[in-house]
Write a structure and sequence with these properties.
The chain is an all-alpha fold. The chain has 10 helices and no strands. The protein is globular and about 60 Å long. The structure holds fe (ii) ion (2 copies).
Length: about 290
């Protein structure tokens, strides 16, 4: 596989929490995902590192892919932590850390009670959804680039991150195939990771939105509910059939077509290694 580890810098001092002003519900959903990512990616790094140790010496290629995967995920976490500090330092969401601590407890419990196979299957479950989110997000992101007030630094964070999710989409799948070759266990991993992370992200984004509405930063009421329904329906309408395809026995992520804009985003990321520079060139990739 062709993977590149890009250590991306970024200055978030002017980044906005409401980075999609026309769709605050969608922005808060992705903000919630961002806030949980350091814990999720830390868990997946532990799982894939363990898989790397368990792979036979004859799979040096896959061991190397596991190493690249972990280094890419570590870079994602570092970049998202900077954005997450902006959200935390805003002081807008006093109960934010209660949500994060619950997720931390989940992973601690999973570390203690589940074995390496379960951890890898959970990781593969998320990684199956990763390239679908990449495809969805790059399409949405390109639409958003036509809106002048969208925050391009935060948008670039997601475009780079999800494009790399597409780039390393095969690693966890190949590790599961090499170590376990377990079809039904793989499907269970997709269901387990999907429901666990959706529960976390929806609950946290709902909390943040309720604080925004209380403080008058976001208009709630019927207009808000309609916007949210539209956003979620569009996201789920895209994701669900593709997850269903990924559950077919013949599925292999290597056959997925690169989403529109993905290669261009990765090329600019490699050239600049900087989210602010990527933001300046964001409209080159529409
Ligand atoms: Fe990642
Ligand atoms: Fe990933």
């Amino acid at each position: 596989m062709n993977m590149i580890v890009r250590k991306i810098e970024g200055d978030f001092s002017t980044a906005k929490i409401d980075w999609i002003p026309n769709d605050p519900e969608l922005a808060q959903f992705w903000n919630a995902v961002s806030l949980g990512l350091p814990l999720l990616e830390g868990y997946m790094i532990r799982a894939v590192s363990q898989a790397k140790r368990e792979l036979p010496e004859s799979r040096a290629d896959l061991k190397n892919d596991c190493e690249m995967f972990c280094r890419q995920e570590a870079n994602h976490t570092k970049a998202h932590m900077k954005f997450n500090e902006v959200v935390r330092d805003s002081g807008r969401y006093p109960k934010l850390d209660e949500h994060i601590e619950r997720l931390r407890d989940d992973y601690k419990r999973m570390d203690a009670s589940r074995d390496a196979k379960d951890a890898l299957l959970y990781s593969e479950g998320f990684e199956t959804v990763g390239p679908i989110l990449a495809a969805y997000f790059l399409v949405q992101a390109n639409k958003r680039l036509t809106e002048q007030d969208v925050d391009l630094v935060t948008l670039s964070l997601w475009r780079w991150h999800l494009s790399e999710e597409f780039e390393h989409r095969c690693v966890a799948f190949n590790a599961v195939e090499a170590l376990y070759g377990a079809y039904w266990a793989r499907i269970a991993g997709i269901a387990r990771a999907g429901t666990h992370l959706a529960r976390f992200a929806i609950s946290l984004s709902e909390y943040m939105l309720s604080e925004d509405i209380k403080a008058g930063r976001v208009a709630g009421g019927m207009a808000g509910r309609l916007r949210k329904t539209r956003s979620y329906a569009s996201m789920l309408g895209f994701i669900i059939p593709r997850v269903a395809s990924a559950c077919m026995p013949w599925y292999n992520p290597k056959n997925l077509k690169s989403p529109a804009g993905c290669d261009a985003v990765l090329k600019i990321a490699s050239e600049t290694l900087d989210l602010n520079a990527m933001a300046l060139r964001a409209r080159d990739t529409v």
